[in-house]
Structures are given as C-alpha cells and as structure tokens.
Amino acid sequence: MGRRWGFLIGFLIAVGLLGSGHGEQQPPETAAQRCFCQVSGYLDDCTCDVETIDKFNNYRLFPRLQKLLESDYFRYYKVNLKRPCPFWNDISQCGRRDCAVKPCHSDEVPDGIKSASYKYSEEANNLIEECEQAERLGAVDESLSEETQKAVLQWTKHDDSSDNFCEADDIQSPDAEYVDLLLNPERYTGYKGPDAWKIWNVIYEENCFKPQTIKRPLNPLASGQENTFYSWLEGLCVEKRAFYRLISGLHASINVHLSARYLLQDTWLEKKWGHNITEFQQRFDGILTEGEGPRRLKNLYFLYLIELRALSKVVPFFERPDFQLFTGNKDQDAENKMLLLEILHEIKSFPLHFDENSFFAGNKKEANKLKEDFRLHFRNISRIMDCVGCLKCRLWGKLQTQGLGTALKILFSEKLIANMPESGPSYEFHLTRQEIVSLFNAFGRISTSVKELENFRNLLQSIH
Ligand SMILES: *[C@@H]1O[C@H](CO)[C@@H](O)[C@H](O)[C@H]1NC(C)=O
Ligand SMILES: *[C@@H]1O[C@H](CO)[C@@H](O)[C@H](O)[C@H]1NC(C)=O
Fold this sequence. Notes:
Distance between the termini: 48 Å
Radius of gyration: 22 Å
Strand order of the largest sheet: 1-2
Bound molecules: 2-acetamido-2-deoxy-beta-D-glucopyranose
Organism: Rangifer tarandus platyrhynchus (Svalbard reindeer)
Order of helices and strands: HHHHEHHHEHHHEEHHHHHHHH
Shape: globular
Cofactor: FAD
Subcellular location: Endoplasmic reticulum membrane; Golgi apparatus lumen
Pfam families: ERO1
Main location: endoplasmic reticulum
C-alpha cells in the first residue's frame, strides 16, 4: 500500500497534480516562458519529464499514429449528431458553415465496416464465441442450479455495461451516420462566447464533484476567487482531483487545436487555417490567465499519460490472433494491424510511473462508491456533448470524450486487471469498433496537441 501510494504520488507530482507553487515562481520573462513555465524540465523523481514525453511523442509516436488514423478503419466514425440535449432545450444551432459536418454517402464507407460482423471474419467470430462460451462455463460452477448459473451469466453482462464510462451512442439509430474524420477536421469554427462557455461551465460546475458555493473562475482575468477554487481543489482526494485534471486537460487540448488551426483568412476565394499566437496566448499565457494557463497545459500532459497508460495496458487485447481491424480489404487490414501493434509496443516501451491500481484503492466499499461516482459523472459529461450547438464541435467533443471514457474503462476494468497479463488476454474484455476508433482518434488528438505545443513554443520564441 505504502509503496503504491508512493508511486502514485511520485507520478502525480511529476505531472503536477500535487505540485504546489501556484504563483510562487519568478515571473517568467519571455512569452514562451509565460506559457510553458510549468511544463518544462525534469520533474522531481519521475523519469517522465516533459522533454522525454515531447521527444517520444513528436518523433516516434505522432507520425505513425497519423498514418494509422488515415486508414479506412479509423477515419470513418459512426455518430448520432441528432440526439436531443437531455439537459436543456434552447440550443442555438451554430449557423456558420464551418460548424457543419458533412456525413458520408453510404457507398463511401467500406462494406466491411458497415456490416454487423465488422470486427472479425466469420471464422474468427465462431472461434470467439466458443472461447467465450468455454470461459463462461469455466467460470460458472456446474454444481450450481441452472437458475444460479443463469444469474451468474447475467452478472457477466451487467459487469460489462458497468465498465462503461460513456453513455453508448445509439449508433443503431437511423439518425446515426458515418462521418469521414479526415474530411471534417477539428479546427476553429467561430463557435465561442456564451454558448460555448455554457457547455464548459456545466461540465466544470456540475460534474467536477464541486460544491455550488465554490466557483471556478469563469473569466480568467477576473481575480479574487481563484485561490478559493484551488485551495478547494487541493483538499480533494486524489481521484476527484484527477477527474478535474482530465477535464481540464481535454479542454486545454481542444483549445490548442483551435489555436493551431485558426481561421486566419476568410475570403470568398480562399480560406486559410493556421497558427494564431495571440489566441494561444490568451488561453495559456501565465500573466493573461492569472496563472491558470500553464496549469492547463500541465493537465494536458496528465491526460496524455493517462491515455498512454490505458493503451499500454490493453495491448494483449489487440494482440489476439483473431483480432482484426476489419474493413474487408485483407492485405490492408493486416498491414494496419501490424502498424497498430508497432505503435502499441512503442507505447509499452515508454517508461511510465503510473499505477492506476492506487486509484480507488483503500477501503473496498468506499472505493467502489467513489468509482461509481466517477463513472456517473463522466457519463454525464458524455451526454452534455449532445448539447453543443456547433455540430463540428459536437462531433469532436463526442469522439474525444468517448475515447477518454474508453481509456478509463480499460484502466479500471476489473476483468483486465484480473486477467492480464499473467493469464493472457481475457475473452471477457471487449471493445467495440466505436470504442477502438474513438480511443485511438482521441489519443491522436492529444498527441497532436503535444506536437503543436512544440510549434507554439518555437513560434513564441521567434517573436521575442
Ligand atoms: C488571432 O486571434 C485573435 C483573438 O485571440 C484575433 O483577434 C485575431 O484577429 C486573430 N488573428 C488572425 C490573423 O486571424
Ligand atoms: C448530470 O448533469 C445534470 C445537468 O447538468 C445535473 O443536473 C446532474 O446533477 C448531473 N449528475 C451527476 C451525477 O453529475
């Protein structure tokens, strides 16, 4: 127990979760330092200093990941963008053209992806069913009455859904459509101001375990409340604080994308997207944001490491011989699986100091309650995405929350913990194609953010 916590705390310090020092630093001088002061250097006793992460991501992971995400399997994402917002009615749809999402024609999407047995060939499907059958029967004591056996099987099913951190999008709905992610890139849409704030506020205010009386500073330039908020945050247990950091990291990551693909020029002849340094500074400069910006960037690295850890943990699932990235194109599918495994092995080789077993450890009953809370709060966030008025932002918001939800499902799935890696991959652990596509695309987005931070760092250094 002590060692475990030691590990976790070392890790959290490394990614700044427990770091003190709000406002203690010398005022950094240059524009670059003002944004990056919290994300540089060797971080205490953890080997994962930011420079190592940057190098690992930018040169080893990012290029291969991009290639993988361009493949048919990963570019087509099925999503229902017409689900009503469960929390309020007055959604003002963003009318801007840049907010629109162009769904695929049905003949664009490979049949292998559309068909129900997308994941496996028929042969493999049968094999899996047999294995699952055997595993279930093995797990069920045959001396039990038939009724009890049935109940146990029901439990297995329930277990599976209780692993899910996201509300499953109803992709069977006639409203669900395939979207080509490459043709609908995440970038600046002009969706901002009160409507966008409202979404993020609901996420922070109602879903971060936060009491009503403590407000997260909405306007980064307004002073006064900040200290109450952060001292509240520091008083939380590790898990709840981690939850906040994940959301903040996601928020930061999305803002990095929007600053990196800002609509710089908009004439009827040409649209040009590119880096907008001013926009980046407004969100991340330590002075302009009263210290919050650099912490947001630190949270982005936290999110990165969490998803990285989930990926390294789920490797055995993808290593199963019968697992395919099935689109129907045999050679291409095999090649993609090789690339996928190459990426996963690269990830696994990255030295990580994160022991997610320490999460939700301690008193079993309390831990379960906390885990359940965590899950419910996260599900809520995935539902709030249906309230985003800009469809493009809704698409990428859903995809990234589903991806993070999948990462959490992997990290906290008891099945995975119990069965891997000693006893080999468990056939009880499943990821759907939706989950796989969102997991890798979401990680691709954070990986892109880390890469973009390097670009912004260089741009900021060149202006000062
Ligand atoms: C960059 O973003 C700022 C807002 O942060 C905006 O005022 C400015 O016009 C943008 N620059 C360009 C070239 O679009
Ligand atoms: C979910 O969100 C709604 C709307 O913001 C809120 O009323 C509800 O309390 C939230 N539930 C949880 C578990 O966070």
